TrEMBL record:
Gene3D superfamilies: NAD(P)-binding Rossmann-like Domain
Protein name (Swiss-Prot/TrEMBL): NADH-flavin reductase
The species this protein was found in: Staphylococcus caeli
Domain of life: Bacteria
C-alpha cells in the first residue's frame, strides 16, 4: 500500500511516518523544509 504524509516532519507526521514504514508501507513524506528531515531519497 502507498501512503503520502503531509507535514511529515511535524510531531504527528513523524509518528505516522515511522509507524507506516515499520508496517512495510511505501511512504512518501511531504515536508516544507528538508533541513530538518532524515530522508532516504529526496526528489
Amino acid at each position: 500500500m502507498k501512503l503520502a504524509v503531509i507535514a511529515a516532519n511535524g510531531k504527528a507526521g513523524q509518528l505516522i511516518t515511522k509507524e507506516a514504514i515499520n508496517r512495510g508501507l511505501d511512504v512518501t513524506a511531504i515536508v516544507r523544509s528538508t533541513n530538518k528531515t532524515e530522508a532516504k531519497q529526496v526528489i
